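From the methods appendix. Each design record in this collection lists the discretized structure first, followed by the designed amino acid sequence. Records were kept in a plain field format so they could be parsed without special tools. The example shown here is representative of the layout used throughout.

RECORD:
C-ALPHA CELLS (127 positions):
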C-alpha cells in the first residue's frame, strides 16, 4: 500500500483532534474530487510497518480523539488487505480511540466484500 500524507493534527475530518492517513490510489475519479493528486497508485510513498508503529504512537497521544482514513480511496481493491490489517492493529493498540473512514464506496457495496473492513470502523462516511 502507498500513502499520500499523514496529518498528525487534523480537526477537519471527524470530531476532536485526530490523526489522518490519506491513502494513495483511486480508480473512481469522482467529479469534483479535491484530492486528484492521490489517484495515481504509483504516487506517494510506501507504507511500512515502521510507519504503522509511528502512526499507533501518534494516535495514542492523550489529546488525540481518534484516527481518520481517507484517500485517494482507502477501500480500493488494491488497498483492502493492507487496510484491514492496519485497522485491526489500530483497534487493538488504540481501543479508546474512534476510527472514521471516508470512502466513495457505498455501505451496501462494502458489505459484499470478503474483507470485514467495517468490523473495525466506528463511523463510515460513504458515497
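DESIGN:
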Amino acid at each position: 500500500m502507498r500513502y499520500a500524507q499523514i496529518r498528525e493534527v487534523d480537526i477537519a475530518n471527524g470530531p476532536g483532534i485526530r490523526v489522518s492517513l490519506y491513502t494513495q490510489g483511486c480508480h473512481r475519479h469522482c467529479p469534483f474530487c479535491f484530492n486528484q493528486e492521490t489517484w495515481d497508485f504509483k504516487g506517494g510513498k510506501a507504507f511500512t510497518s515502521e510507519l504503522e508503529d509511528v502512526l499507533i504512537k501518534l494516535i495514542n497521544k492523550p489529546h488525540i480523539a481518534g484516527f481518520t482514513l481517507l484517500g485517494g480511496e482507502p477501500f480500493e481493491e488494491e488497498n483492502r488487505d493492507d487496510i484491514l490489517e492496519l485497522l485491526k492493529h489500530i483497534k487493538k493498540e488504540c481501543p479508546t480511540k474512534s476510527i472514521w473512514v471516508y470512502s466513495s464506496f457505498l455501505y451496501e457495496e462494502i458489505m459484499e466484500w470478503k474483507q470485514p473492513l467495517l468490523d473495525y470502523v466506528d463511523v463510515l462516511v460513504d458515497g
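APPENDIX NOTE: The radius of gyration is 13 Å.
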